[in-house]
Amino acid sequence: MAQHSRGTTVPGRSPATLSEPVAAHRLLSLDIVLALLALAGGLRVLYLAAPAPALPAEAANVAHAYALGHFTAFTDAGGAGVSPFGWWQLSAYTMLLDAFGRSATALAAVRETMLVVAVLGALLLWVLARRLGLTRWAAAAAVLLLAASPLALGLQRLVVVEHLAAAWALGALVLLTRPGARIRHDVLAALCLLAAVLTSPLALVFLPAAGWLLVRRAPVRAALVAVLLNLGLGIAFGPASGILRPHLAAAGHPSVADWVALDPSWAVLSTVALVAALAVPSLRPFAVSGLLLVATLLVPGVPDTAVLALLLPVTPLLLAGVVQAVTRQRFPAHRWEARRGTGVALAAVVLVAATAVGWGYGYPAMTPAADRNGPLAEAREWLRVNASGARVLVGDAAWAELAKAGWPTGMLVASSACTVTCPPAEWAVFTADETGLRHRYPDIGAAFETAAATAVFGTGDDRVTVSRLGLPPADPAAPSEASARAHAGEALQASTRITFTPDAAGPLRAGHVDPRLIATLAALAALQPVGVAAFPEVPGEDPAGQPRRRVLLTGGEDGAAAFYTGQRDLFRPSSVARTGGGVLVTYPLFAPPGLLVPFSSP
Predict the structure, then answer these.
(1) What CA–CA distance (Å, rounded) separates 148 from 131?
(2) What is the pLDDT of residues 189-203, one digit of tens each?
(3) pTM score, two decimals?
(4) pLDDT at 465 over 50
């Protein structure tokens, strides 16, 4: 028998031969981890396409990340919470990797950070599961649940600082469960826990699990970590509270019920896992922290989305651990090797059956949006074309999008500036969930008393409205502008010198055509026959009730182009362009009243 410095070897087998199975197992683990991370990242890239913020805190976090990275001031409208350390993290990523420059929207740029954090969280979950004694396949099942659950996909795409806090907390737990951990690992774990709490105060619920793990391993080190953590928290919540102290966002939608609807099986399996894990010694610390998180859902004012963001990585770990513990108890150690395959297969079938029901609804409900830009980007482009450089009153979401597009931040009036008196503005851009700001800031409501919607993009909760402020009050005794346009349109349509396609005749009869187009078409028809192919809609203006101010002319295109190019004053178009379909004439917004006068059809 060959002798070696570290002991003896099996007769007839070299150390290299013994290391081959170990290397093979490590390669298999690496393959599994890479496949799971690719799945988690790929799915999140796909579902990153949902364009609109789902809660006010997301819009404010995006704006704060942009403002910090571009050294400009921004104060949100309130209710979105405070997390300076979280905003610094978001800003650092977006600036270092030029996310704002690469992304179509500011929202997509910061959501990219959430994608990276989600993949990192999946990796940390794998390492933590393995260090807690879960088998390779049990750890893979835990990561798979986190990677592919519709609830996780929907929640982890949102710019919520609790996702950052969860990653910090997982990092601390990974350090605390490291075999042969040294004091430097405990110090790093304390710093990770401090970072988690400074990102979101809800991360305090992970302290019992961390302390439990430390006391089990080294009580003296637990005291050291406690001292370091308390010192850091004392500074952050004391002398440095003005720049570090976090505050939770206000409670609101989406609620727990809204999220659970995406994956009902997650709620059922998580509840079972949280309770059953109390009976498994290695999982008990995590079960206690998970139950504390669930208890915070009952506290008034705590945002449900924030709690679920921290709970997401906990319950898959507990579920996988409980299933493994039950399976091993069912098949004792001396029979485990022979029947391991059966136990794993059975557990897999149960999990797949339980999750398939919920995911069958959740994935269709999460169908990615076809348009990755979304209503805010459309409103931004509309303003660029029609109101470039104007002073705009904006909500939190529009502030970041317009600032990213190059709008001078000094010309953006944030809602928070209207605490006493709103600075003067010419336009306003608000999303559907920001209409309540008119009640929070009365001067915003006063500004809208002389406003009218000029363009509307999106529908329902995704709706974005662009309004013109400071319009003169309407004269109630004046005749209806729409009826005057409809009457003049009918007279114009009766002309034998103008040919209208059905697409052009409909808006004309309905009174949806700009009076400047009606008047100039009548004048052009006196000079030459005219063909009108369409009155193309300017995107966003039809839902706001604005008349169509573009016309596509066919036949006699040279004369039509020369006619409109030569117009002056009120009847001068903003553009006359030749296209493949004819001459496209576009007028600027807001025709002066009283332009329609009686005329005879040629």
Answers:
(1) 23
(2) 999 999 999 999 999
(3) 0.85
(4) yes
Give the C-alpha separation, 472 to 292, whole Å. 57
* Bond before 254 cis per omega within 30 degrees: yes
Closest C-alpha among 211, 223, 237, 249 to residue 80? 249
Q: What angle do CA 380, 386, 389 make, to 5 degrees?
A: 75
Q: Give percent of the chain above pLDDT 90.
A: 43
Provide the 10 A C-beta neighbour count for residue 577: 11
**DSSP secondary structure of 81-130:** -B-HHHHHHHHHHHHHTTHHHHSSSHHHHHHHHHHHHHHHHHHHHHHHHH
Structure tokens at 279: 């009976």
Residue 205: the pLDDT is: 94
Is residue 321 within 8 Å of residue 132, measured between CB atoms? Answer: yes
Residue type, 164: L
Helical axes 219-237 vs 207-217, angle rounded to 10°: 150
Q: Can you give the pLDDT at residue 46?
A: 83
- Within 323-476, strands assigned E span 392-394, 412-414, 427-431, 452-457, 464-468
How many CB atoms are closer than 10 A to CB 179?
Answer: 6
d(CA 279, CA 332): 17
DSSP state of 431: E
Output DSSP code: residue 551: E
Alpha helices in 467-584 (DSSP H): 481-493, 502-509, 515-525, 557-565
SS3 content of the chain, % helix, strand, coil (to 5): 60, 10, 30
**Cβ proximity of 250 and 81 under 8 Å:** yes
SS3 of 268, please?
A: helix
| Residue showing tokens 């101010």 | 549
Which comes out higher in pLDDT, residue 337 or 317? 317
The bridge status of strand 464-468 relative to strand 7-8 is unpaired
- Per the structure block, which two tokens stand in for 106? 């500011």
For 326, the token pair is 């039950």
- Token pair listed for 314: 């906990």
Torsion angle, alpha carbons of 140, 142, 146, 150, to 10: 100
Neighbour tally for 269: CB within 10 Å: 23
Q: Which pair of structure tokens corresponds to residue 110?
A: 């910061």
List beta partners, residue 369. Answer: none
Q: Are 465 and 378 in contact (CB under 8 A)?
A: no
Contact assessment for residue 423 and residue 417, using Cβ atoms and an 8 Å cutoff = yes
- Judge whether residue 214 has pLDDT over 70: yes
> Exposed, middle or buried, 298 (CB in 10 Å: 0-12/13-18/19+)?
exposed
